[in-house]
Amino acid sequence: MMSDPTEQITNASAFAAEAYDPAAARARQRNWATQSRELAKQRNREHIQRIKLERGCTDCGYRKHPDALDFDHLPEHGKTIAVGMLAASGASIKRLDDEIARCEVVCANCHRIRTSGRAKARFDQNTGLDGQPDSEVAS
Prior knowledge:
63% helix; mainly alpha; 2 strands; HNH endonuclease
């Protein structure tokens, strides 16, 4: 048999009042936030790996393993933050894509070659040597 609807409401209200625990609610919220952050990080890692493998190295064409590929920030675009750090922070895909647009994908070897070339050019520019042999600089 059906019980009185008024009695059902009263019982439900009493149950809700007894069941609410602020500490448990905070714990559930922290747990949800942690899970959400971890899901965002995982989503970002997968997004980055997919982009690396799709594009491959701009210089030599390597595309076998995403961990051997880097995002090289182009000097003309500047670098606001490393793509990996941005991904680990749980940033949005749009924010990641905005930063990736400032980069080219290159393998680790090509990235080191590019970076050393840029560093040498900066050194030469700052010292005024511009790649001249020592004998020419002294005269």
